[in-house]
Amino acid sequence: MSKTFYITTPIYYVNAHPHIGHAYTTIACDTIARRHRMLGDDTWFLTGTDEHGQKIERAAQAAGKTPQQFTDEVSAEFRALWQRMGLTHDDFIRTTSDRHKQGVQALWRKIRDNGFIYKGTYTGQYCVSDELYIDGIGPGDPCPDCGRPTETVSEENYYFKLSAFQDQLIRLYTEQPDFIRPETRRNEVLAFVRSGLRDLSISRSTFSWGIPVPDDPKHVVYVWLDALANYITALGYGSSDTAKYEKFWPADVHMIGKEIVRFHCVYWPAFLLAAGLPLPKCITAHGWLLFEESKMSKSRGNIVRAETIVDTLGADALRYFLLREVVFGHDGSFSFDALVQRYNSDLANGLGNLASRTLTMINRYFKGEVPYPSNAAHAASDDAIADAAKKTIADYGALFDQYQFSRALETAWTLVAAVDKYIVENEPWALDEKKDEESRARLATVLYTSAEALRIVTALAHPVIPDATARIWAQLGLGEIQKFDLAQLKWGQLQLGTKLGEVQAVFPRADKSAIERMQKMEEQNASGATGVSPVQPSAATSSAAPAKPEAAAKTAAAISDGKISIDDFAKVELRVAQVKTAERVKGADKLLRIEVDLGTEVRQLVAGIAEAYEPEALIGRKVVIVANLAPRKLRGLESNGMIVAASPEGGKPVLASFLEDVPVGTRLK
Ligand code: MSP
Fold for domain 570-668? Predict the structure, then answer.
C-alpha cells in the first residue's frame, strides 16, 4: 500500500489581496505535493482562507461591506489565483464554511470535556492586527511583535490551560527534534516555552464575527483556535464522515512563514494534546519574501502580485525563481531585475536551450528518433555525464526532501551546464559533416547521452516547473510526465527509437521591456487599487499616505473638474499628535473630549469617535489632526482641530495612524 502524505499551507487572512508572499508558501507546498505524487505517495494538499476575527470584521467595515460579502469576495480571489497558477491543492477550506464551524465546535467540546477550559477575566492590551493579548505593556504601548498600536480591553473570557502543557511540549521538542524545522526556530520555541507558559484566552465577546462558543453563543471562538483547527476540520474531523481524517491525520508537514511559529508550535500541539488527538509530524517555517528591503505585506504597501509575473513570464518562472533564488528558511529579496535575470540564465539559456538544441539535432540528424548509444563509439566524457546524472538523482532527492530547494536546483542545473559543455566539446554538427560510420556512431552516442540527461533533469524539475517540463517530456516523446514514477528514475531508461514530439521553445528569452512591463502593471494596480482595496485601519492609512502628495503634484498642472492644486493641499496643516487624555462628553453618545500633545502645545479637541473607541484605548496613541482648523464649539466645549479618520459608509470611523514611530508634531505633506 502506498504511503500517505498530508501537507498544508497556512490559511490566508482575507483582509489582504493575494500577493507573491502568499504564493511563495503555496508554491513551495505545491512543489512538495507534486514530488510526493510522482513518488507514488497518496498525497493530500490543503490550503484555504482564514476569515474570522476582529481584523477581518474591521476590514469589511472599512470596505463598506458585510463581513460575509467581503470574505466571499477575497476568498474567491485566492481561489481564482491559485487556479490560474495551476496549483494542485486537493481541498480549499474556508473558516466560514459549515463543515469548519462544526469541526471547531467539536474540538472545543472535546477540550472542554477533558477539563482544559475555564472562565476568567482579562484586562489589558490587545493587538487587533495579531489578534493577541499582550502581557507586560501598558495602555497606549505598541505591540512588541508588529509595532502597531494596542487597544485596552477588559473581557470575561474562556481560558485554555496552556500552562498545563509546558512540560509535555518541552519533551516533544526535545524527543522529536524534527517537530519544528529549521533548528533556529526550534530553539526559539524551546526558549519561549521554557520561560513559562500562561493560560490563553480562547474566546472573545466584544465582537461577533466568529464561530459561537458551544453552549455560550455570546462568545466567539478565538480566531487562532478557529484557524488552526482547519487542518483537521478540512479532513472531516467532527463530521459524520471522518474517512479522510482517519487516513491523512496526523499531517506530515504544516508549512508556515516564520512569524506564525508560536501559534503552530506551541498553541496547536497544546490544543491537540488537550483534545487527545495525534500531533502533526513536522512544522516547517520559511523566511520572508522581501521587496524593497522589507517584508512584503499589504500593510507596508510593498506588494507584488503573482498575476503580473504569471502574465508576463509564466507561472513556472515565478516558481523557479522563488525556489532557486531564496534559500528556504531564510529571508530572500524579490526584484523584477533578478527575476528576469534568473529566467534568462537558467530557464531560457539553460534548460530551454539544452532542450531545443538536443531535440532539434535529433530531429535533423536522426529523423526525430532517439538514436542508439554505441559501445564502439564510447568516450570517457559520456561516462562522466552518466555518472553526474546518477549523482544528481541522488543528491537532488536528498536536498529536496530536506526542503533545500535552491541547492537541489543548483545541483540539477550543474548537470544542465555539464551537458551543454559536453555538446560544445563533442561538436555533433562537425560529426554529422564527416559522414563516416564511426562519426555517425559517435554522433548517436553524444545525442543519446544529451537527451537522456535532459530527460533526467526534466523529471527531477517537474514538481518545480510543471508546465515547461510537461512540454519537454512530450517533445521527448514520453507522453504525460505526471504518470512517470519518479522513484524509478535511473540512467539509461530512454528507449532507442523513441519518436520525438513536435519541438518548440519552452522558455522564450525575456528582454528588458519585460521588466518595465511588470513594473508598470504593478504601478497601475497600486494606483487603481488604493480606492477599492479593503483597508485595514492603521496600516493602510500609513501605506497609502506617501502616494498622495505625489499624486497631488502630478495633477497640480491640471486644476480643473474639482481637483485642487498642491498649494491648496498645502493650506491644510496635517500634524501628528499624541492623545494625553480622553473622556466621554456627558449627554453626547458620539463625542469624546480629547487633549492632544502637538509637541509645541497641548490642545483640546472634540471628536465624534465615541462609538468606535473606548477613551482609555486612545491614551498614548498617535493620531493625525488637522491643526489649522478654525475653532468651533460642540456641546459647549471648544474644539481646536479635527482628528483624521476613515469614515466607511455605514461603519464606524477608523483613526489614521502610523506603522513606524513618528515624532509628535511632524507635518504630513
Ligand atoms: N491567517 C493566519 C494563518 C493561520 S494558519 C492556521 C495568517 N495569515 S496571513 O495571510 O497573514 O498569511 C501568513 C502566511 O502567508 C505566512 O505565514 C506565509 O506563509 C505567507 N506570507 C505572507 N507574506 C509573506 C511574505 N512577505 N514572505 C513570505 N511569506 C509570506 O497569518
Answer: OB fold (Dihydrolipoamide Acetyltransferase, E2P) (2.40.50)
Residue ranges of domains in the chain: 337-546, 570-668
Q: Are 258 and 92 in contact (CB under 8 A)?
A: no
User: CA 445 to CA 371: how far, in whole Å?
Assistant: 7
Confidence (pTM):
0.79
Over its C-alpha atoms, the chain yields an Rg (Å, rounded) of 30
CA-to-CA distance for 370 and 508, rounded, in angstroms?
A: 25
Query: Do residues 377 and 444 make contact, with C-beta atoms less than 8 angstroms apart?
Result: yes
Q: Give the residue, out of 7, 8, 9, 12, with the most ligand 1 atoms within 8 A of its beta carbon, to mutate for a pocket test.
A: 12
Take residue 423 and report the three cell numbers written for it.
555538446
Between the two ends of the chain, the Cα-to-Cα distance in Å is: 67
- For residue 128, CA distances in Å to 58, 145, 151, 577 come to 10, 12, 8, 22
**Beta-carbon-side half-sphere exposure of residue 320 (alpha carbons within 13 Å):** 32
pLDDT tens digits, one per residue of 400-456? 999 999 999 999 999 999 999 999 999 999 999 998 999 999 999 999 999 999 999
* Cα pseudo-dihedral 238, 240, 246, 250, rounded to 10: -20
- HSE-up of 110 (CA within 13 Å, CB side)? 17
CA distance 399 to 328: 11
C-alpha of residue 78 to centroid of ligand 1, in Å? 13
CATH of 337-546, one of 3.40.190.10, 1.10.730.10, 1.10.274.10, 1.10.3720.10: 1.10.730.10
Please tell me the distance between residue 257's alpha carbon and the centre of ligand 1 in angstroms. Answer: 6
pLDDT of 587 over the 80 cut: no
3-state secondary structure at position 557: coil
297 CB near ligand 1 (under 6 Å): yes
Q: What is the DSSP letter of 5?
A: E
Q: Which residues contact 308 (CB under 8 A, 6 or more apart)?
A: 518, 521, 522, 525
- For 24, the enclosing helix (H) or strand (E) is helix 20-38
Nine-digit cell string for 231: 487542518
| CA 207 to ligand 1 centroid distance, Å | 24
